[in-house]
Design goal:
With about 325 residues, the protein is of the alpha+beta class. The chain is built from 10 helices and 6 strands, in the order βαβαααααββαβαβαα. Strand 3 and strand 4 (about 170-180) form a beta hairpin. The two termini are about 40 Å apart.
C-alpha cells in the first residue's frame, strides 16, 4: 500500500536573557518522547487524550455501529475543543501577523524564508509569563493583549482548537523553554508549572554554549516537526551566557493513502478525478457559464421536486420489504 505523507512544519526560536523561569519537576505524558531529551527535562506538559477517528473498514457492513462510533468521536472532539477559538482571539492573531510579518522577513529578499506568526506569538506569550513589570507590559503590548490572564486564555483556545492526534492526522503547537543548567537551583517552580499547564510547554536544562545544548534543541525541533526542520546542522547556536531559550513549533501531518478500500482514503484520487473532469468539461470560464445557463432550471426542478419524490418512494418500498 502506497503512502504519501503530507507535512508542513514551522519553528521559531527566541534566545533570551532570562533568569526567572523554572524549577525541577516531574515529567508528564506530553512533550518529548526521546530518551536523551527526557534526561534533560525539568518538566513536561501533559497533553489531553485526543479521540480516535473510527475506521470504516473495522465495521464491515455494520453501518449503525460506524455511525454511533463517529457520533461519539465528534462529541468527544467537541468536548476537547470547548468553545473553540473566539473571534477576538482570531482577530488578535491576525493583527499580530499583520504587524510582525514585515519586521520578521525584513532583509530576507530573494531568500527562501518561512515565517510562522503563530509560533512567534506562542513564544512571546511564554516570554510574557516569564517576564515581569515593564518588560511584561511591553510584550503584552506587542501581542495586543490587555493582560496575562487574557493571554493565557487565548493560548488555551488556540492550543486546544488546533490539537489533533486522532490516528488519521495530527496537528500540534509544541512549546518549550531551555534553561542554562549552570543556574540550576535558581529557577522558579511556579513559573515552570504554569508554562506546562497553561502553555503546554516542556522545560529543559542544558549547558548553554556547548554542542550538547545546540544538538538537544535541534533534536527537539526535529522531533516536533517530524524531521522537516532540524537534523545534522544545529538550528541554533547558544552562548555560554545564554540564560534561557524559548522554542515553539507548529507541525501538521496527514496521510493520504491511494487505496479505495477505506472511504476516507478516497479523498485524493476523487479530488484528482474531479480536477481532471473539470478541466476536460470546462476548458474556459465561458464554457462553464454556458453550461450553467442550460442546466440551472432543470437542476433546480430535479433537486427541488425529483429528489424528494425519489426518497419518498424509496422509503415506502423499504417499508413494504
Amino acid at each position: 500500500m502506497k503512502r504519501r505523507v503530507l507535512a508542513a512544519a514551522l519553528a521559531v526560536l527566541l534566545v533570551l536573557p532570562l533568569g526567572a523561569c523554572g524549577s525541577p519537576a516531574g515529567s508528564g505524558s506530553g512533550g518529548s518522547r526521546s530518551p536523551a531529551l527526557s534526561k534533560l527535562a525539568l518538566n513536561q506538559p501533559i497533553y489531553p487524550d485526543c479521540p480516535q477517528q473510527p475506521d470504516f473498514a473495522d465495521f464491515g457492513d455494520d453501518w449503525e455501529g460506524y455511525d454511533q462510533a463517529s457520533t461519539e468521536y465528534y462529541e468527544q472532539l467537541s468536548a476537547l475543543r470547548g468553545d473553540g477559538i473566539s473571534s477576538d482571539t482570531v482577530q488578535a492573531l491576525s493583527n499580530f501577523a499583520g504587524r510582525s510579518t514585515a519586521l520578521a522577513i525584513e532583509g530576507m529578499e530573494g531568500q527562501n524564508s518561512i515565517y510562522s506568526p503563530l509560533s512567534l506569538w506562542a513564544a512571546l506569550a511564554m516570554l510574557a509569563q516569564c517576564a515581569g513589570g515593564e518588560s511584561r507590559q511591553q510584550v503584552l503590548s506587542a501581542l495586543g493583549s490587555d493582560g496575562l490572564e487574557e493571554l493565557r486564555g487565548q493560548v488555551a483556545q488556540v492550543w486546544q482548537g488546533l490539537y489533533t492526534d486522532d490516528g488519521v492526522s495530527s496537528l500540534l503547537l509544541a512549546n518549550s523553554i531551555w534553561l542554562n543548567s549552570s543556574l540550576e537551583g535558581s529557577y522558579v517552580e511556579e513559573t515552570l508549572e504554569t508554562l506546562a499547564r497553561d502553555y503546554y510547554a516542556g522545560a529543559f536544562a542544558v549547558p548553554m554554549g556547548t554542542a550538547q545544548a545546540d544538538q538537544a534543541v535541534t533534536d527537539w525541533v526535529s522531533e516536533q516537526t517530524h524531521g522537516l526542520i532540524g537534523g545534522e546542522e544545529p538550528v541554533v547556536e547558544t552562548k555560554e551566557y545564554t540564560l534561557a531559550l524559548l522554542a515553539s513549533s507548529c507541525a501538521a501531518l496527514a496521510q493520504a493513502v491511494f487505496s479505495l478500500k477505506e472511504r476516507r482514503h478516497a479523498a485524493v484520487p476523487v479530488a484528482g478525478l474531479a480536477l481532471a473532469g473539470a478541466w476536460l468539461l470546462f476548458p474556459d470560464a465561458f464554457s462553464l457559464d454556458r453550461w450553467m445557463e442550460n442546466v440551472v432550471w432543470p437542476g433546480n426542478l430535479l433537486l427541488g421536486f425529483g429528489l424528494p419524490l425519489l426518497l419518498l418512494l424509496v422509503k415506502k418500498l423499504r417499508g413494504q420489504v
